[in-house]
Specification:
Number of strands: 3
Number of helices: 3
Number of domains: 1
Strand order of the largest sheet: 1-2-3
């Protein structure tokens, strides 16, 4: 999870974001849009979390697997 979170954070960089958005991966696009330029940090358990707004507008630190995506976004892996 942390490797994926840090990779997502790196793909937000101005120099690579456009290329990442052209990749044929709709879930990546949805995650990049959801995270935007939100700050991130590691918690006590060393989980990387992004500071995002929840549905009520309150800031919340979320792991990558806790980020709400549009309902039509493909699952990360078929379950």
């Amino acid at each position: 999870m942390n490797t994926a979170s840090l990779t997502l954070a790196a793909l937000r960089a101005e120099s690579v974001r456009d290329r990442a958005m052209r990749a044929p991966h709709p879930r990546l696009h949805a995650l990049l849009q959801a995270v935007g330029d939100a700050p991130y940090e590691s918690d006590e358990a060393q989980d990387v979390r992004f500071r995002l707004l929840d549905q009520s507008g309150q800031e919340q630190w979320s792991r990558l697997d806790e980020i709400s995506l549009p309902p039509n976004t493909q699952a990360a892996w078929p379950r």
